[in-house]
């Protein structure tokens, strides 16, 4: 099934992290989640294992408050068994049930196969494998569409080559400083799949700036990559636009991307996101950005 997300999807991998059930911190996270559901963005993206299940739990509490109309706006992912690392058909069905219980929903518009590092593509595709479970859920109509959300790119290319997935989600690989997901997205496009591009800020540095954030894609960046970020910051400063706006619009303007998944866990960040979306980026910036990116080694 083809799904139709809005240009931005709200990512909640950090939502509710470390909060105790019933605590004021949980309540604050629920308040933020209510704002996410009440925003104009179609989907809120979570996963069975985000914040050890607390992301889904908080979203479930928010859904109780917002009402059933918001239920079709939550997208989650199935994860391996955290104890045994099993990731077969039965684990997929259990993971889906756990997510539905936390979220308080019976159906989902989209369910991703998340980071299947515990199994090979052949194991996942074999009878009794994880993908069989995903297809069963879609055939039963409790899931509208199924996606593959992982890394690295070559494994994702293998998964989308099977022809069974409706959507693909890649992270940190289609940004100002990394274009490695381009062939994957072109392939997915040609197959009529929905493309989600997650982590347009490289998980922070392209929003917070090179002086404040020290990682790209959850790792220490090379000096060479950091050098390109600094040069891009200088270009943005010369034009009076924030690097974060350019990083976001790089993904928003791409014809390869249906929806950009941005990590947002507070109402303040949600407002900032909407402000960044409204900024007009001068055309000359894209020329300078591409010149800097062309020096990547
Ligand atoms: N395998 C997968 O399926 C997979 C992998 C990665 C990501 N994802 C999805 O994609 C989402 C986004 O990924 P991500 O959160 O890692 O990366 P991201 O969206 O590139 O970056 C999020 C980071 O940017 C910061 N940020 C956001 N808006 C900002 C602003 N206006 N000013 C300054 N900093 C700002 C946030 O900081 P604060 O923490 O300070 O708010 C947060 O740490 C995840 O939440 C998840 O839903 C999926």
TrEMBL record:
InterPro entries: AKR (IPR020471), NAD(P)_OxRdtase_dom_sf (IPR036812), NADP_OxRdtase_dom (IPR023210)
Matching SUPFAM superfamilies: NAD(P)-linked oxidoreductase
GO molecular function: D-threo-aldose 1-dehydrogenase activity
GO cellular component: cytosol
Enzyme kind, highest EC tier: oxidoreductase
Keyword Oxidoreductase part of the UniProt annotation: yes
Keywords (A to Z) from UniProt: Oxidoreductase
Coiled-coil stretches noted in the UniProt entry, renumbered to this chain: none
Region (Disordered): 1-27
E.C. no: 1.1.1.122
Keyword Ribosomal protein: no
Residues covered by the NADP-dependent oxidoreductase domain: 8-292
Protein name per its UniProtKB record: D-threo-aldose 1-dehydrogenase
Source species taxonomy: Bacteria, Bacillati, Actinomycetota, Actinomycetes, Micrococcales
């Amino acid at each position: 099934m083809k799904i139709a997300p809005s240009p931005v999807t709200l990512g909640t991998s950090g939502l509710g992290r470390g909060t105790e059930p019933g605590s004021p911190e949980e309540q604050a996270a629920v308040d933020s989640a209510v704002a996410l559901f009440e925003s104009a963005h179609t989907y809120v993206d979570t996963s069975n294992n985000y914040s050890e299940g607390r992301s889904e739990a908080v979203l479930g509490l928010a859904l109780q408050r917002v009402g059933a109309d918001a239920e079709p706006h939550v997208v989650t992912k199935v994860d391996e068994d955290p104890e045994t690392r099993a990731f077969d058909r039965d684990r997929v069905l259990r993971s889906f049930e756990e997510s539905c219980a936390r979220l308080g929903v019976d159906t989902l518009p989209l369910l991703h196969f998340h980071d299947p590092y515990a199994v090979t593509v052949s194991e996942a595709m074999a009878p009794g494998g994880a993908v069989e479970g995903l297809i069963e859920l879609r055939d039963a109509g409790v899931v509208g569409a199924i996606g593959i959300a992982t890394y690295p790119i070559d494994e994702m290319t293998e998964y989308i080559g099977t022809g069974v997935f409706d959507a693909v989600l890649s992270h940190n690989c289609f940004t100002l400083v990394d274009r490695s997901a381009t062939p994957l997205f072109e392939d997915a496009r040609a197959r009529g799949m929905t493309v989600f591009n997650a982590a347009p800020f490289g998980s922070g540095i392209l929003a917070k700036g090179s002086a404040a954030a020290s990682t790209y894609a959850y790792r220490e960046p090379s000096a060479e990559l950091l050098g390109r970020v600094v040069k891009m910051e200088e270009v943005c400063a010369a034009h009076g636009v924030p690097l974060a706006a350019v990083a976001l619009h790089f993904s928003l303007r791409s014809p390869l991307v249906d929806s950009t998944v941005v990590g947002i866990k507070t109402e303040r960040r949600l407002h900032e996101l909407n402000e960044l979306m409204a900024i007009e980026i001068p055309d000359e910036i894209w020329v300078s950005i591409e010149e800097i990116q062309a020096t990547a080694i």
